Amino acid sequence: MRYILFILAFALVINVNCSRKLPWDNPLDPVNDLPPNVPACISPPNDSLYIDNTVVLCWSCCFDQNQGDSVLYSIYVGTDDPPSTAVSIGRKDTTFTSTGLTPATRYYWKVEASDNHGNISYSTVRTFTTNSLHLVGAYNISGCNYHVIVRNNYAYVASESGVWTIDITDPSQPRYSGYWYNGVYVTVRAIALKDNYLYAGDKNGIAVIDISSPSNPSTLGNMLLAGDVSNMALKGDTLVSANLSGGLRIVDVSNHSYPNEIGSFSTWSVVDARDVSVAEGITFVADGAAGVRFINISDTTGPYEAGHFTTAGSAYGVKVSGPYAFVADRDYGLRILNVASLASPTEICHIVTPGLANGVSLHGQYAVIASSSSFTVFDISNPTMPFEKGRYYTTTPVYDVFIAGNYAYVANGYSGLKIIEILP
Predict the structure, then answer these.
(1) Beta strands per DSSP E along 189-309
(2) 3-state DSSP helix/strand/coil % of the chain, to nearest 5
(3) pLDDT > 70? residue 348
(4) Sign of CA dihedral 187, 140, 98, 108
(5) How far, in whole angstroms, is CA 78 from its chain's centroid?
(6) Which residue, 3, 36, 120, 307, is the most exposed by fewest CB within 10 angstroms?
(7) CA 302 to CA 294: how far, in whole Å?
(8) Angstrom distance (rounded) from CA 314 to CA 325
(9) Nearest-CA neighbor of 245 among 209, 270, 220?
(10) Which distant-in-sequence residues (6+ apart) come within 8 Å of 399 by Cβ?
(11) Dihedrals φ, ψ of 2, to 5°?
(12) What is the average per-residue pLDDT within 274-300?
């Protein structure tokens, strides 16, 4: 009898264990079906800025926890948090290109992973902000492009191959209009413009060019100068040139056929005079490792130093507006100086920018830093508290930026001329 009871008890235990539902007993049983793993959003990184209006979203591959289940992805993108609009449904791959995004807008995105039994997992919500700057046009110019000036419907670009005139009537479709070179293909690094005359600077000096017919520029005169012209500024009929090892050169250009050097000032830093800006008889010289020098040129035959400011980096660019000097300080980005007192200038603001700052330009309420990897636009309505308006990354160095209307015209090194729209 005891043996029979033992057999019955053993059979009952076996029956109970075999009736228990375990995941591996029947993977397609809805009672045991599990959702896919949670997808992880990979790119762009969370809280990214300056995203183009076309962006590639990437996420991790998910595996379902039940054998035999397949996984599909749906992508949600929108300005609501969390995003409620699916922009793509039932995808097998782990990337999606979102196009037509509104510039200067914060977006949210998430990924839904679902299996063939309707089980769902959601990623965390990530966010990015689109750029207020976006490319609208470009023109390929041979050689390295260093300087750009825009007037009316034309962009004049200084390059290794000469000076190019580009018709920008339609910024989205810039086209060739004219070309000038100095006869020996010497790199033109700087240009200045007044009325129908363009001044081009290279390692030999300056040339005066008649651009009354933009499609057919012609040489009027030349002037040999010591050093290599790096940048220039015009004040009336006086042209002031930063000539690297040649220091500061002052030229009377009232006679376009026969420009005449009327003064000079030697600077001494390792990389020498890089840029100039003229204001009320004072020329501000970006003098590399020596910082910024303030040269009084009211008497062009005897210019003298009225003050200086040593920056932390290497001053490659300088522009002056009112009592403020804006300095491109290479590794140290943008520096803003109060130069109301030339004898005791003070730094009022310093902003680190990406890459190496090559130059600075001023356009109304904006200051633009051109660097080795991008250009950055700052609103300087309050110079003591500037704020970043936008940034545009490039694959080659930016040497100069000219803003006209809602567009930035970019001398983008070996990438030619780029035209970037700046949105409010």
Answers:
(1) 190-194, 197-202, 205-210, 218-224, 231-235, 238-242, 248-252, 260-265, 275-279, 282-286, 292-296, 304-309
(2) 5, 50, 45
(3) yes
(4) positive
(5) 26
(6) 3
(7) 14
(8) 15
(9) 270
(10) 144, 145, 146, 147, 358, 359, 370, 411, 412, 413
(11) -65, -35
(12) 93
**Side-chain-side CA neighbours of residue 291 (13 Å):** 17
Q: Is 307 exposed, middle or buried (0-12, 13-18, 19+ CB in 10 A)?
A: middle
Distance CA 164, CA 145 (A): 10
Could you tell me if residue 405 is left (phi over 0), alpha (psi between -120 and 50 degrees) or otherwise beta? left
Q: Looking at the DSSP assignment, which residues form a beta bridge with residue 167? A: 154, 175
CA gap 125, 41 in Å, rounded? 8
Rounded Cα distance between 402 and 165, Å, is 15
Tokens of residue 391, six digits: 């940034």
User: Rounded mean pLDDT of 42-49?
Assistant: 93
Residues near 418 by beta carbon (within 8 Å), at least 6 away in sequence: 135, 137, 138, 394, 409, 410, 412
Cα–Cα dist 313/229, whole Å: 22
DSSP per-residue letters across 285-335? EE-BTT-EEEEE-SSTTS-EEEEEE--SS-B-EEEEETTEEEEE-BTT-EE
Q: What is the largest CA-CA distance in the chain?
A: 132
pLDDT in tens, 183-206: 766 789 999 999 999 999 998 899
Segment 240-262 shows an average pLDDT of 94
Q: List pLDDT tens digits, range 67-109.
A: 778 899 999 999 999 999 999 999 999 999 999 998 889 999 9
Q: How far is CA 311 from CA 212, 332, 375, in A?
A: 41, 9, 21
Q: Are strands 86-91 and 48-51 parallel, antiparallel or unpaired?
A: unpaired
Q: What are the chain's domains?
A: 41-130 (2.60.40.10), 133-422 (2.130.10.10)
Q: For residue 53, what pLDDT is reported? A: 83
Checking DSSP bridges between strand 48-51 and strand 126-130, what pairing results, if any? parallel
Instruction: Please report, to the nearest 10 degrees, the dihedral formed by the alpha carbons of residues 24, 30, 33, 36 taken in order.
Output: 150
Could you tell me how far CA 379 lies from the centroid of its own chain?
Answer: 15
- The pLDDT value recorded for residue 174 is 98
Name the strand (E) or helix (H) holding 75.
Answer: strand 71-78
How many Cβ atoms from other residues are within 10 Å of residue 66's Cβ? 21
What is the enclosing helix (H) or strand (E) of 358? strand 357-363
